[in-house]
Here is the input.
Amino acid sequence: MNISDVIRKDLLRISDTVHGGQAWKLAGVEDFSHNLNPLGPPKCIPEIIQNAVSGVDHYPDDNSTELKGVLADHFNVRPENTIVGAGSSDLIRMFPNTFLGKGDKAIVMRPSFAEYAHQCRIAGSSVREMLLYESHDLRIDTDELLANLNDVKAVYICNPNNPTGRIEPKEKILDIVEQCADRNILVFLDETLLELVPSHRKVSCAAEVNRYDNLLVIGSLTKSFAIPGIRIGFGFASEGIINAMDKVRMTWNVGHIEQQVASSLIKDHMGHVTKAAEMMSSEAKQMHRELNDIGFKIGMTDSFFFFNSLNDIGMSVPEFKSKMLLEKIMIRDCGSFGSEFKSYVRFCVKDRERNEMFMEAVKKVINGVK
Here is the structure.
């Protein structure tokens, strides 16, 4: 059988997505291409997992009742406004499969997380990309967005945006949500990276789903607790959105161990996330200052990862990435976000020791030291 003869024809035009966080495949390489909590998982993770093992002899709670209650308490929403997924990627897949079909259009910022557009296209909908310009500090131009809402069913926003690291203020986000509500347009807001920012409570719109029935806010424990191998994601929205998404959610999508781990981490170990957020905020400022001092001109980030062009150092991204790998450092080549960003790299903030390693490697690379 020729699979190309039987596969959905629209899938043949969809390319695979590209992601960072691949240094685990290379021995001795420090990964600055991902955005994980640099403190790593809490030391209690093995114990939490071991305590949860006793429940694996039965099916997990399909409703994730306990975990929803913990999430609702932490984010000041109701359990009925909560949905749980196998990582935020599960929710990113659920949303278009619930609301976006053939003929529907969604607005996705570029550059932004590649899975939004990818999953929209898999669901059969089309994507209208809205470019984020350096001249506008890579932030959402609200006027331009509102001018492009004709025939649109959903708008995707990532805050902090990945890969740019920019954080949009809560007032700006809610203004967009209100404008979209007036036009019967859904807003998908990804706050997966927000809890690793000290000011996250002032920025988060999670509790606002009680006011806006067109808003879905998603989060995850992947980044905040540095546990990408344990898939735990969650979303908050009106009961109407939650009930609709439950129709396409895979039965038993979150295992018993994951539910127990998530409940324990959120109830008892959020201090681990706060500690990392405060450290990275301080380190980002120092990293920015020291990198500029050695001739690697970068702008300041709103969050805990940098997104910058290499044009000022006269080196291509593949060359820079290759030379950094020789120094046992991996950075993210951002050319996959489009030709406009082929000169851009993304790298994260870690602790003082590893940040010094990174800066020493940059110094060697840009000065041609072998």
